[in-house]
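Saturday, quiet lab. Running sequence design on the structure tokens for the scaffold JK sent over.
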């Protein structure tokens, strides 16, 4: 049995060599006269390399763990990044979409580059710091609107009491409590019933 198994093994190996198949069951390929398994290896400028550890960048083999390929050139991965097909300095620059920006003066909002001095970012929307604000995930107009909690309100008709929006025409704010102007009063930060209570020196009576 051993002899027969040995014969079968060598017969199988001979068949693989003759038919051009690797032991992993994939077609064998040639790299400058050297056979390689395309499932696990690559051919870079006539040199066989390990696909799990290395890459090929414009004919140059590079280390996947410590290097990057960008724009057909190899760079140190600890110092450089690739933005689209452009290389950038990780210490001073960032990548936004496919645009390189300056970390000291610019930011990235969604896929837009914005000016940190004059603009802000609100839920992937760029806004003007001089005229607009960010409330939760909404951009609002500083001249006509306010932000209460995470809600935008109208400055002309509404107010903010704690984190509640109230109607200026019919309601008031006492401490952090909204009260009814028609039936209630504010006494030293406490809402009182006008019909049944009084207020003396900010103390309900």
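Result came back. Writing it out in full:
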């Amino acid at each position: 049995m051993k002899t027969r198994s040995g014969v079968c093994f060598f017969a199988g190996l001979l068949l693989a060599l003759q038919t051009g198949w690797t032991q992993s069951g994939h077609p064998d390929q040639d790299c400058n006269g050297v056979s390689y398994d395309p499932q696990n290896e690559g051919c870079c400028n006539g040199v066989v390399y390990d696909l799990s550890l290395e890459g090929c960048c414009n004919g140059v083999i590079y280390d996947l763990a410590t290097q990057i390929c960008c724009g057909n050139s190899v760079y140190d991965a600890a110092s450089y990044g690739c933005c689209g097909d452009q290389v950038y300095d990780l210490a001073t620059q960032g990548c936004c979409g496919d645009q390189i920006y300056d970390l000291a003066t610019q930011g990235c909002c969604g896929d837009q580059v914005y000016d940190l001095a004059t603009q802000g970012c609100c839920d992937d929307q760029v806004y003007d710091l001089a005229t607009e604000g960010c409330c939760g995930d909404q951009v609002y107009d500083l001249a006509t609107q306010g932000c209460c909690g995470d809600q935008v309100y109208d400055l002309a008709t509404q107010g903010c009491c704690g984190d509640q929006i109230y109607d200026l025409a019919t309601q008031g704010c006492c401490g952090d409590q909204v009260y009814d102007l028609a039936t209630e009063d504010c006494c030293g930060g406490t809402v009182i019933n006008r019909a049944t209570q009084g207020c003396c020196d900010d103390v309900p009576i």
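Notes for JK: The first strand starts at residue 29 and ends at 31. Residues 1-19 have pLDDT under 50 and may be disordered. Ask whether to fix the surface positions before the next round.
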